[in-house]
From TrEMBL:
Protein name, per record: EAL domain-containing protein
UniProt organism field: Catenovulum sediminis
Stretches assigned to coiled coil: none
Residues annotated as domain EAL: 24-278
């Protein structure tokens, strides 16, 4: 009986697995279609300078406007893009679209924004990456300086050494790098100091518990103090309330990003965006 039960469990497991594999396969072929049919789009989340209270930049965030399922978040499909190798053409599309939107903002009088783009490990290993970025910049007549590349701490830990030369070259050409989701990857600032990185983005899991967990507050405090004394610019992600803003300002954190200031917006809505005064009280 136990044996039969075991077998049933196994068959059930196998059916589940097949269903899962089938779903992944379907999704993957849908992703090919998505690229061809232009179902991807970008939203932009403002980054706010905590000193001036102004929007200093935006982060481009990928969305999939699925014809039946509606808007799909990147956590659901970026891993599949990475597995299937589609991340390279999609990543190229992201760069092109973001620069096009940047040009659109400029033509409407919005200048000096910093445009942050998220990079996957495969893009960091792509020998054509510099060429791809440069030709997109040339197409929209934009300088390398307007682009900031976000790489997660996790990616940096695994691929940092191999990507060092590419990053060095890109920095020489004028782009900036930031470490995304900092604090989740168990790396040390001492290790990261070897990489050509200007900015540290503290992961929102630490920001979330400001005013809730003393331990998280201590971590945030320590990371900001250390990062700043090593010369990094510090960004806090996932800022949702005024308590967090107060705390971060007291620590001289440079930039904040989160739902308190704005959810990710369309390129058009970025033009209209104004920091609400009540989000940064005197
Ligand atoms: P990320 O780069 O850390 O982006 C920040 C994520 O936090 C975004 O989720 C954003 O919507 C969300 N967020 C911002 N403020 C708040 C807040 O106050 N509270 C909460 N709860 N969440 C907030 P999103 O857009 O779903 O993106 C998830 C991840 O997908 C990104 O994390 C990034 O790693 C990846 N991703 C997005 N776009 C791209 C892309 O073009 N290429 C690659 N390779 N990865 C991308
Ligand atoms: Mg990011
Ligand atoms: Mg992040
Ligand atoms: Mg994140």
């Amino acid at each position: 009986r136990a044996k039969a039960q075991g077998r049933n469990a196994f068959m059930f497991y196998q059916q589940e697995m097949n269903a899962h594999a089938f779903e992944l396969l379907t999704l993957e072929s849908e992703l090919h279609r998505a690229l061809q049919q232009q179902e991807f789009c970008l939203q932009y989340q403002p980054k706010i300078c905590l000193r001036t209270g102004k929007m200093t930049g935006v982060e481009a965030l990928l969305r999939w406007q699925h014809p039946e399922k509606g808007m799909i978040a990147p956590d659901k499909f970026v891993p599949l893009l990475e597995e299937s190798g589609l991340i390279l053409p999609v990543g190229q599309w992201v760069i092109e679209q973001a620069l096009k939107d940047y040009r659109f903002w400029q033509s409407h009088g919005l200048f000096n924004l910093n445009l942050a783009i998220n990079l996957s490990p495969a893009q960091l290993k792509d020998l054509k990456f510099i060429e791809t970025l440069q030709s997109a910049l040339a197409k929209y007549k934009l300088p390398m300086q307007c682009v900031e590349l976000e790489i997660t701490e996790h990616t940096m830990m695994i691929h940092g050494e191999n990507s060092f030369l590419l990053m060095e070259q890109l920095r020489q050409l004028g782009t900036h790098f930031s470490i995304d989701d900092f604090g989740t990857g168990y790396s040390s600032l001492a290790y990261l100091k070897k990489l050509p990185v200007e900015t540290i983005k503290i992961d929102r899991s630490f920001i979330r518990d400001i005013g809730v967990e003393v331990e998280d507050e201590i971590i945030v405090k320590t990371v900001i103090a250390m990062a700043k004394s090593l010369g990094y610019q510090v960004v806090a992600e996932g800022v949702e309330n005024l308590k967090q803003v107060d705390f971060l300002r007291a620590l001289d954190c440079d930039v904040a990003q989160g739902f308190l200031f704005s959810r990710p917006l369309s390129a058009l809505d970025i033009l209209q965006y104004q920091v609400q005064p009540e989000t940064l009280p005197h």
